[in-house]
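For the sake of clarity, the format in which proteins appear in this thesis is described at this point. Each number in the token line that follows is a code from a learned vocabulary of backbone shapes. One such record is shown here in full, so that the layout can be seen directly:
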Amino acid sequence: MASTPTEDDRSLLTVVARMTAKPGKEDELRAGLEALIPTTLAEDGCVNYDLHVAEDDPATFFFYENWTSGEKLDAHLAAPHLVDFAGKLDDLLVNGSDGLIIQRLKRIA
């Protein structure tokens, strides 16, 4: 069985970010999300930054992320490449920028 990042380090901050593309914007959203990956993986504190699509809804995307601290995640959220992309969310997402749901999680078992 493959291990997850929190298997070896329970102190990691896990993040699940969910968003759904407006009709007709699925490919544009996916391309924009994929473009974030290389820069984000190079950021200090990023352990993994995995993009997923819902199996039953190709318009709904999720990032599964692990960070070494909340401060490192906050720095990521303020990074120029992410701020630039966030400025496009009103055009790309159902419910605009409010359609991005970010949940911070701590592993307990």
Notes: The chain is about 35% helix and 30% strand. The radius of gyration is 14 Å. The helical segments are 5-8, 26-41, 70-78, 80-86, 89-92.
